[in-house]
Amino acid sequence: MMRSFFVLALLAAHTAHAQPASLDEDAARDAVHRIVRHSGLQPNFVVRASTDTRTAIAYVKDRQRVIAYNPAFMAAVLDSTRTDWSAVSVLAHEVAHHLLGHTIDPSSLRPGDELACDRYSGFVLFGMGAALEQCLAAQSAIGSPHGTRSHPPKHARLEAIRQGWEDARRLRGGLPPEPTNDPDALRYMITFVNDENIYYADSAGHVVWFDAGACPINLGELREEGKDGYALQWMEESFFVDGKLAIWRRSAHGMPLQVGRMQAYAR
What pTM did the predictor assign? Predict the structure, then answer.
């Protein structure tokens, strides 16, 4: 079976006595440039290997768009997945943060941004020749089942990657996008402070995110609590929605803090 063209650029050779697979800066830079070129753009990123970075991150410094990654983290991803594409998918996710403007105004609670970048990763890797299971490999190995305050749980991120890959496959085949759920099932729009994404609560009490042409991805639950309001479970955090549809959570000092708002969904 012919191996991908990333093998020579990305990985050290695999032999019985060789060191674990690794990713040096030149190889990472080449991969990032190929990702961006498949988006129809000219690459203008600085790519750095950095032990100060825990995993991988996109940021702007001195007006330069930077993608930094921890070599040990990337080596662990490559070693656990046994596919070159896992490194490419991680880098593609960080490229998307730049291309989608997330690094202009970074915030700690924007799970929709992460899903949008995962969807881009699946989309662009299809164009580069990756199979779906190769696109999913990194997130399958390193994703958190329960998510974190800023990153959605593994099931949501895998679904976003799948949606991107499937959208690219359908586009190449001249097929329409995947059908979305009936919007009549959506009851509320949910917004959070410092998060430009819009989330929705459906008639079954699921809190979902989806962008244009994508199927909903479940991120939480909304439950009525009598006439007093709603309980909103957002990944590992719990919020209260009052009778005026303001979303509250308790601060570290126990004081209520308004963090968002709900409003009735109008088609």
Answer: 0.84
